[in-house]
Amino acid sequence: MPISWSVFDVAGKEQELEKLQAQSVDSGFWDNSMHAQGVMQHIATLGEEITTWRDLESQSASLIELLDMSVDEGEGDLADDIAKETAELTSKVGDLEFQLVFSGPHDDRSAILAIHAGAGGSDSQDWAQMLLRMYLRWGERRKCKVNVLESSPGEETGIKSATIEITGPFAYGWLKVERGVHRLVRLSPFDADHLRHTSFALVEVLPEADGTLEIEINSDDIRVDTYRASGHGGQNVQKLETAIRITHIPSGIVVTCQNERSQGQNRDVAMKVLMARLIDREEQIRAEEQAKIKGAHVSAGWGNQIRSYVLHPYKMVKDHRSGYQTSDSQAVLDGELDEIQRAELMNLVGQDTA
Fold it and tell me: Is residue 203 helix, strand or coil?
């Protein structure tokens, strides 16, 4: 059975793992805790990948031996067992080969995902909260660690915006296809006449920094403001100014965090989000430069909806890039996004090879 060992480069991954493990026992390794945590997470991911592929290699060798034994000794009774094991192995290899689509420089990282309600008041803010629930459920289904870093409640219901951290293998690789405008069509629960409304929300997906100095942030380039955390309606919920707003002056990027208990914790989280946004900004600049050579680039901004969720007059979720659609809109809103994400990931692979 042909297995893509050379494509995955198990030996190369094992060498990389040895180097990282050697680094992890150096004195001073934990002086930069953020960098150390990133390295340890990468070590764990590499270890799991290598073990999986080596186990498949062993299983493949055993299956070949079983097949040879069946041919040499005329053991026809083994045919059903061989067929079953072959099907299982083929399925496992297919799933792992699919993971090779995660070849981007940040695909194996955790993700920071931000949701912004569009114009439309309560309907759009409620839609933003529905999307937040969808991604929280997605993270739970994939057994990822999910943490709400920041949320801004709507005036009456829902949220104006929210930022969440999703920690798990290839979280960014999976979620990067969620970036863009999401459109909802439904009978509005906030309309007395129950008319059909269309709502929009923008989803941003950023790769989490791995702790290395990928982008250096000069302390003179940032302005830090403190304020009191607030709840629905803007009322202050804390007497102390624990909430943090950091402005990166050269780029104009502003990040806030108010969900942690202390000002220091909120500052650490805000800096993490700022680093992720700066990494994403650099990626966008590179993408725009490549687009000048490769062709037109469609930004993930307003007016470029990537997916529609229709709840009335019929039920359907359709991804406008890959063409994938399903009538089980409730399952999608409950976080069952694997198939729709797979379709767009394969669509991206097709574009890269075209």
Answer: strand
Domain's final residue, options 67, 101, 135: 101
| d(C-alpha 214, C-alpha 33), whole Å | 15
Question: What's the CA gap between 49 and 51, in Å, rounded?
Answer: 6
Residue 72, pLDDT score: 61
248 backbone dihedrals φ, ψ, rounded to 5°: -90, 105
From CA 165, how far away is CA 204, in angstroms rounded?
Answer: 12
pTM strictly above 0.85: no
pLDDT tens-place string over residues 92-122: 776 677 777 887 888 888 999 999 999 878 9
- Angle at CA 278, nearest 5°, toward 277 and 279? 90
d(CA 163, CA 19): 34
124 falls within a domain:
yes
Do 19 and 85 belong together in one domain?
Answer: yes
At 238 the pLDDT is 46
